[in-house]
């Protein structure tokens, strides 16, 4: 997202605990700062793209938080997946300082982020959306304004994550099931992506399995968190989420097997391990080749 903004002529300062990301952004011409407070000094817009509500809290309101340092009347875009009540709390705290808070969870993955083609599921004051419209247009292909109050965007994202997590788990189960039947899983991928059983997640994640590449584009631990949020909300509403609950346990099992920080397609590795199957190693499309 920072690269998209930089490409469109915005002055952007990046802050990240990952030094490699900071170095890469600096080589593109972006400014970097050692902490959120320094990075947000006088900024009109702060975009918090982190894993969860705890990290959002630290980035926005911690000892070196961004909100106190940004321009008065500025706007916070909060992009992490979180429970709606936490988004409402962050909005209230921003309002107390005279800053706008937009609840703007994102979807689309790293490739769409790099192309400025994310989907934003947003909620917050319409005037705040209008004020930062050029920023939104730079980072997203679709911006849904779903309500005037924070929390609605978060709720939409939770629904998305229920589906995303279930679809990843199902895709990984399907490809390892195919392997158990001794099918050519590269051919399975070709056939399924042209058939009714396909999903965006099957099409996007199964190539990681075929390539034996589990470097994290989106980590297993993210879905143990996000499907955990689904389970908590469902419990509070007394609404059953049995399929999401099964998917959650598949991610928890994968994390327990030591793959929590690996790509979420590692659910296939976990299932393959249970079944005694060999999936492709890096550089192969199938172990038989």
UniProtKB/TrEMBL annotation:
Spell out the SUPFAM superfamilies in the cross-references. Answer: 6-phosphogluconate dehydrogenase C-terminal domain-like (SSF48179), NAD(P)-binding Rossmann-fold domains (SSF51735)
List the Pfam families hit by this protein, alphabetically.
NAD_binding_11, NAD_binding_2
Cross-referenced InterPro entries: 6-PGluconate_DH-like_C_sf, 6PGD_dom2, 6PGDH_NADP-bd, HIBADH-like_NADP-bd, HIBADH-related, LtnD, NAD(P)-bd_dom_sf
* Protein name per UniProt: L-threonate dehydrogenase
Q: Which residues form the 6-phosphogluconate dehydrogenase NADP-binding domain?
A: 1-147
Q: Which reaction does it catalyse?
A: L-threonate + NAD(+) = 2-dehydro-L-erythronate + NADH + H(+)
**What is this protein's function?**
Catalyzes oxidation of L-threonate to 2-oxo-tetronate. Can use either NAD(+) or NADP(+) as cosubstrate, with a preference for NAD(+).
What NCBIfam families does UniProt report for this protein, alphabetically?
ThreonDh
Task: Tell me which Gene3D superfamilies the record gives.
Answer: N-(1-d-carboxylethyl)-l-norvaline Dehydrogenase, domain 2, NAD(P)-binding Rossmann-like Domain
């Amino acid at each position: 997202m920072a690269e998209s903004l930089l490409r469109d002529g915005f002055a952007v300062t990046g802050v990240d605990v990952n030094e490699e990301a900071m170095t890469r952004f600096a080589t593109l011409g972006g400014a970097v700062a050692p902490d959120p407070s320094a990075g947000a000094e006088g900024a009109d817009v702060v975009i918090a793209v982190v894993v969860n509500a705890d990290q959002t809290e630290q980035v926005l309101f911690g000892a070196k938080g961004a909100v106190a340092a940004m321009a008065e009347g500025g706007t916070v875009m909060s992009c992490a997946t979180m429970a709606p009540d936490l988004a409402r709390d962050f909005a209230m705290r921003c309002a107390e300082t005279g800053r706008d808070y937009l609840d703007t969870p994102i979807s689309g993955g790293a490739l769409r982020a790099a192309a400025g083609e994310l989907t934003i599921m947003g909620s917050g004051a319409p005037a705040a959306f209008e004020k930062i419209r050029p920023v939104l247009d730079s980072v997203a292909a679709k911006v849904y304004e779903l309500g005037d109050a924070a929390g609605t965007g978060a709720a939409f994202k939770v629904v998305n994550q229920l589906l995303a997590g279930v679809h990843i788990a199902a895709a990984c189960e399907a490809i390892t099931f195919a392997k158990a039947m001794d099918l050519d899983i590269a051919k399975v991928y070709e056939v399924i992506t042209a058939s009714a059983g396909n999903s965006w997640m099957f099409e996007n994640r199964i190539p990681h399995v075929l390539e034996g590449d589990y470097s994290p584009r989106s980590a297993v631990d993210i879905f143990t968190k996000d499907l955990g949020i689904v389970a908590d909300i469902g419990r509070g509403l007394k609404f059953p989420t049995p399929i999401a609950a099964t998917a959650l346990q598949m991610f928890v099992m994968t994390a327990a097997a030591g793959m929590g920080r690996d790509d979420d397609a590692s659910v296939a590795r976990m299932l393959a391990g249970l079944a005694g199957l060999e999936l492709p190693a890096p550089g192969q499309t199938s172990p038989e080749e």
